[in-house]
Amino acid sequence: MMLFVLTVARWLSLSQLVFKPFQHCYIMELFTDVALLSKSPPSDTALTEAEEANEKTCSITDCKQLENKIVALFFSASWCPACQEFTPLLTQMYDELIRRNAPFEIVAVPFDRTKESCDRFFVQESGDWLTVQFDDSIIGTLKEKYCVNVIPKLIVLRPSGEVITPTGRKDVQDKGIIAFRSWLKSTNLSNSLSFL
After folding, report:
1. Distance (Å, rounded) from C-alpha 158 to C-alpha 72?
2. Counts of helices then strands in the chain (DSSP H, E)
3. CB count, 10 Å around CB of 43?
4. Most C-beta atoms within 10 A of its C-beta, which of 47, 50, 103, 182?
5. Distance of CA 130 to the CA centre of its chain
6. Percent of residues in the chain assigned helix, strand, coil, to nearest 5
7. Sheet harboring 59-61: ordered strands across?
8. Model confidence at 53: pLDDT above 90
9. In this structure, what are the phi and psi dihedrals at residue 4, rounded to the nearest 5 degrees?
């Protein structure tokens, strides 16, 4: 009996540590004043001929693209073999969801060691999602808030900022695009199921 009580007490103290970072915080509030990188230029920006030919340009956007969407925070780095393996799978899912006009966005949170490797991975290897700039202090905030100690990590959030699942990577690997359907059902965006 004593062992059971100690085990429950230990679990409760650990669960407080695990669930503490998942406090309520609206996505828009979380990314207010954060300049996010986007491969797609703002709709009101004309591209130069060189940019159109290259198609690998970056622009800075704000958090308005995250409004009323499920947002997946993708913690990754260019030097990480598991990230390199998972990124194409995530890109395929993201592209299909965007093609279907799903209320979904990914924000990559880089754990790279240099700005150059971060930029190269963003431009050449990642999907067309948003990315936090290499030196932005929000990276440390997000790492601490969501207890990220291994990468790749995909944490899926409701528009309210509440965590749908901290195991989004496993969902994507196991279920593919079907994972999004279960994420969507857990939100107030469920009336958007018609696009699936």
Report:
1. 9
2. 8, 7
3. 5
4. 103
5. 8
6. 45, 15, 35
7. 59-61, 36-38, 130-132, 104-110, 70-76, 153-157, 163-165
8. no
9. -60, -45
Phi, psi angles (nearest 5°) of residue 78: -70, -30
What is the tens place of the pLDDT at every residue in 128-184? 899 888 888 899 999 999 999 999 999 999 988 899 999 999 999 999 999 999 999
Whether residue 152 is preceded by a cis peptide bond, meaning omega within 30 degrees of 0, is: yes
Euclidean distance between the first and final Cα of the chain, in Å? 50
**What single-letter DSSP state applies at residue 128?**
S
CB-neighbour burial class of residue 62 (10 A; exposed 0-12, middle 13-18, buried 19+): middle
Write out the two tokens for 100: 């279907």
Q: Is 31 exposed, middle or buried (0-12, 13-18, 19+ CB in 10 A)?
A: buried
Residue spans per domain, the chain: 22-195
d(CA 76, CA 108) in angstroms, rounded, equals 7
Q: Domain 22-195 is in which class?
A: alpha beta
| Mean pLDDT, rounded, for 81-108 | 94
Whether residue 7 is predicted with pLDDT greater than 70 in this model: the reply is no
Helix (H) or strand (E) holding 191: none
